[in-house]
Amino acid sequence: MSKLDYCFSNDYMVLRPDRAGAYELLHLLFSPKVGRNKAVDCFTSTELHSFRRRLSIFLNLLLQLFLLSLVGPLVAVLGGALEFALNLASNVLHGRMEYPDRKSASYRSITGLIDPRVDLERSITPADSRYHAALCVMASKVAYENEAFIRDVVTRRWQMEFVQFFNCWNGKHSIKDRFCTAPFAHRRTHATCLMLCVWCLLYCAEFENAYTAQAFVFCDKAADAELVVVAFRGTPALDVARWCADVDPSWYKIPRLGRAHAAYTHALGAQRNIGWPKWVEHVKGKAALDRLAGVYTFGQPRVGDAMLAMFAERNLDRPRKRHFRITYGDDPLPRLPHESSAAHFLHFGIRLHFDSLYNLKVVKELPGDGSSSSSAAEFATSRINAAWELARSAYLGYWRSAYCREGWLLMAARAAAVALPGLPFHRVQDYVNAVTLAGSNIPKDM
């Protein structure tokens, strides 16, 4: 008998750092009966005899407890103050003597201030093989901004039709950035567009009661649209609550679907004691998926097991390949969540990996993923890579393309990354550079 009736899952393991006290943590180390541990939601009969797996859960709970302890001071105070101060400085430097308004079209997120680009590189046109990927990565970056800014960029800079901005009532976990940015090529108007968006965006209020997931929809023209894009916001730079979702290895096993990361299960609307929302029944089937032109993800974490991978490939990659998973360098997000059992989380889709010179390779696994190198060696390697990226970025705009020239704030962030491990946590600007400099190597489909 389970501790909680999840209805939508026939097996699950959900970590609960809010219930993790000293006794629960020690119990994980010394007892295989994790089903009786308050810090782990699973069937009460569940036992883990592998000390390595219990140690992994123990360390993850400690990490989440540490991150959650930072939520108040870091996000509410330091994050907001830093963003406001940078916007004020930007206004002054650009001759706009105005008080920053967080809802105005001129207010930028930290992501947008670090990399202010919003337009595609001039050589990338709709006929270019990079166009879908370039439009998606830029939409993913713009998704970090407020609704007024996004509307202004879509209508004034991109000369496209803004449809709607979604600020979704979500649970403890958030859907990932870079995870579900997709252009839809069809000849329907907004009705189909909104159906597709609602399918991806309706969230439940059962798990945490907070607005934690945002996305927007736009299309190429108001009537008879041929291209519709749904772009999801990823993890903001200083949102510690979402960092917890990234590292959390919690999962649900869903009948006929497989084992899925809890963040994505919550994002699709699953609720305790209720199951799937009724709207799911109305959007089942392949009618919408048949109109997909492609799904491009940037730094996507692992989302499920082999069964889920087969489900996704069966629906996305037939009759042609349409799911492109783009990764860059040693970005840590595609290597999350860390789980000692490789069967729980793996990647799927066509893997397009860019190294620190923005050279593209189609790889089976991420370079260095699953390596047995020591923590000291990993730390040294990450510092060397950060130093190299700083040096590379100083001349990239002169060597490859003026479009990739970096401002002082981005250079300062790269300098900070040399000294501080894990920064920048997610390299949005490098994904924009990678797609821009890829030439004709990024396919629209295969």
Summarize the structure.
The chain has 446 residues and is α+β, with helices and mostly antiparallel strands. Helix content is 37%, strand content 14%. It folds into 2 domains: 11-70, no CATH class; 101-172 and 207-438, Rossmann fold.
Largest sheet: 4 strands, antiparallel
Q: What top-tier CATH class of the largest domain fits best?
A: Alpha Beta
What radius of gyration results from the CA coordinates? Answer: 22 Å
- CATH-defined topology of the largest domain: Rossmann fold
Report the uncertain regions: 170-209
Q: Determine the number of helices (DSSP H or I, runs of at least 4 residues).
A: 14
CATH architectural category of the largest domain: 3-Layer(aba) Sandwich
Q: Number of domains in the coordinates?
A: 2
End-to-end CA span: 46 Å
SSE-based structural type: alpha+beta
Approximate shape:
globular
Biggest sheet, spatial arrangement of strands: 2-1-7-8
Percentage of residues assigned to helices: 25-40%
SSE order, as H and E?
EHEHHHHHEEHEEHEEHHEHEEEHHH
The share of residues in extended strands comes to 5-15%
- Report the average pLDDT across residues: 79
Query: What is the tally of beta strands?
Result: 12
InterPro entries: AB_hydrolase_fold, Fungal_lipase-type, OBL-like
Protein name: Fungal lipase-type domain-containing protein
Transmembrane segments: 57-82
Keywords: Membrane, Transmembrane, Transmembrane helix
